[in-house]
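Before relying on records like the one below, remember that each one covers exactly one chain. Contacts with other chains, cofactors or solvent are not represented anywhere in the record.
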Amino acid sequence: MKRPPGRPALPQRSEEVAPRARVELEFERANLLGALFGQFDQNLITLENRLGVYIAARGSRVAVEGEPAAIARARDVLLALYGRLERGQQVEPADVEAAIAATDSPSLEGLLPGSTGETPAIRTRRKTIFARNAAQARYVEALASTDIIFALGPAGTGKTYLAVAQAVSQLVSGSVDRLILSRPAVEAGERLGFLPGDMREKVDPYLRPLYDALYDMLPSEQVERRIASGEIEIAPLAFMRGRTLSHAFIILDEAQNTTPLQMKMFLTRFGEGSRMVICGDPNQVDLPDPSGSGLADAVRRLEAVKGIGTVRFGAKDVVRHPLVGRIVEAYEGPGA
């Protein structure tokens, strides 16, 4: 395989630095190799940089050289990604990072080749979303089976995105009648009325991430039509007071910025035939008193209650650019 511009051929190795092992893989479906290697071989470059191996491809054969442990990880990643492609799934840079992370932890082995069962997925009108790591797999399974779920962890782990996907899936299938998305507008506080525009224009900046996820799951005209009909409601947390939400899929985002009283108010809106997901990062509280977060208080009180599930994500579960995960680790590590 010719190396494209930006990926120069590695210099000849001397005997002193020669790799201690080599393995060759052969893939049957050559038409999948372009997606497996990535544009300009970017997926192979990522594997080389992250695992310290050297990868050479010729035709349908791929040779991996390096330390035996690193070679084994690279082999498992390539087979995992190839398996995704065989099942009709896409391979994106985040999937490569997730597969690399999976080879570094026994708890993630279920997402690698040879594991039993299929990768958990959520199907919406516009796309099918597959779990990218073990934490997401647990979360997707919980979303399909648990009445109330607390999803805890840093930004970029897919907490809200997957919850919106499951909500849209259930709304389209008819298993719920409404989709209600909410988050506290903490920064606006009591000054919300002084912002220009009508109420929707005042609160939209705080709810924009929820809109973005919706438009990724449904055609834009359907989103607007369902919002106009009331099937989809996007509102600040204060609008939930005094209501009973039955036969609805309810999502509270940025829940770490609720007070205990607000959280109690929200949780007690739960009605018959409903599903509720509470997403937040306990380490990113914007309240004047961070110790007064309603999210931490609710998890402490309710985690052991039957019918309530908790899924925790960490820095290694971030599915944005790999630098985001390293930034989260730096802020949460020793000396933070």
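The longest helix spans residues 68-86.
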